[in-house]
């Protein structure tokens, strides 16, 4: 994406790395398709911000700099906002723009006066246009904004439909796991599709190597081995080599565009553990078919949350923003699989509601977009753990206290 700021080697400088001295570079630039200046942060400017943000998102993204004179390009520091301007802008966009486009905000303080500075807003190219500001669809026209024509509206909708199709295709990817006999291994999948990237934004080999090193460090911190496997368009990092169906191996797939897929095998009960579970179910009035597959709820959740925690570490180490991702989960080969736990809360739940099991063949969540300005952070561990049960019949945010007590009990990682 375009940046008006350049590093010493001439490469585009991201907003997070911009410092006060970089503002001098703006004197050589003119307002245009992806850059707009505002001298003051007054009521009139704030009224125009939703329109500017939406027009950038409907086009190719852009930068709004408040505290720069649009005629002379002189730096004119504005007072530091009393409230966090990123939150203020987020609230402003949520009230006036639908849907809310991706953006970042920074206040860059004047070294000579910490109470004054420049507000820099970077707006990404939107993945799901058109973005409507106060009932109008506008796009960039030179250095200003203007209403989109009928043909331009069609192009905006086509762009959104293409992104929807890309996400759906990504969520159909499946990692290979050796199978024991004819029975397919139950899997938990967490999809993290990186949005907003264009072909020119694909990372270099050096960036890919840094991603792998950060992920390997996460495996080490979790006390796990990391085996790297090359696929045709990704790298797969597994906890064990994929050669034995008896040894389940969680895996993380890294893609060059920053997308990630986490796959975790469920923990099936076998031999004595399964017999004990069947016996306890019978005592609770729940008959279990002979061929029923039973997985340990706590053991599976511990495995899922352990790997999802690794993703959180990776994101922090690499400075990733969860707002850049579309997120979904899926339970593969889990239809009809029963969940078992020795927690007393689960036994009480079974008496009143029956055992939990996956009731559909397509246990995929609605894709959730985290770039709406409302998510300052995203905890992969929390998301993975709680939504595992949503696919198994426990509605999140249920008004039934028994549902919530059971989720809390099964999500505890320590006895």
Structure description:
The protein is α+β, with helices and mostly antiparallel strands. It is built from 9 helices and 19 strands. Strands 10, 11, 12, 13, 14, 16, 18 and 19 form an 8-stranded antiparallel sheet that branches. Strands 1, 2, 3, 5 and 6 form a 5-stranded mixed sheet that branches. Strand 7 and strand 8 form a beta hairpin. Helix 1 packs across helix 2, helix 4 packs across helix 6 and helix 6 packs antiparallel against helix 8. About 1% of the residues have low confidence.
Topology diagram in text:
Layout lengths: L34 E4 L4 H16 L3 E5 L11 E2 L5 H12 E2 L4 E8 L2 E11 L8 E2 L2 E6 L2 E4 L2 H21 L16 E8 L10 H17 L5 E4 L3 E5 L12 E5 L4 E6 L5 H13 L10 E3 H22 L6 E8 L5 E3 L3 H10 L9 E2 L3 E2 L10 H11 L10 H11 L4
Parallel strand pairs: 1-2, 15-17
Antiparallel strand pairs: 2-6, 3-6, 4-7, 5-6, 7-8, 8-9, 10-14, 10-16, 11-12, 12-13, 13-14, 16-18, 16-19
Helix pairs in contact: 1-2, 4-6, 6-8
Name the shape in a single word.
elongated
For the termini, the CA-CA separation is: 48 Å
Whole-number mean pLDDT: 84
Number of helices: 9
Q: How much is the radius of gyration in Å? A: 25 Å
Uncertain spans, ≥5 residues at pLDDT below 50?
Answer: 372-377
Q: Return the string of H and E elements.
A: EHEEHEEEEEEHEHEEEEHEHEEHEEHH
Q: Could you tell me the number of beta strands?
A: 19
Give the DSSP E fraction (strand runs of 2 or more residues): 15-25%
Structural class: alpha+beta
Helix content: 25-40%
Main sheet attributes: strand count, strand direction, barrel closure: 8 strands, antiparallel
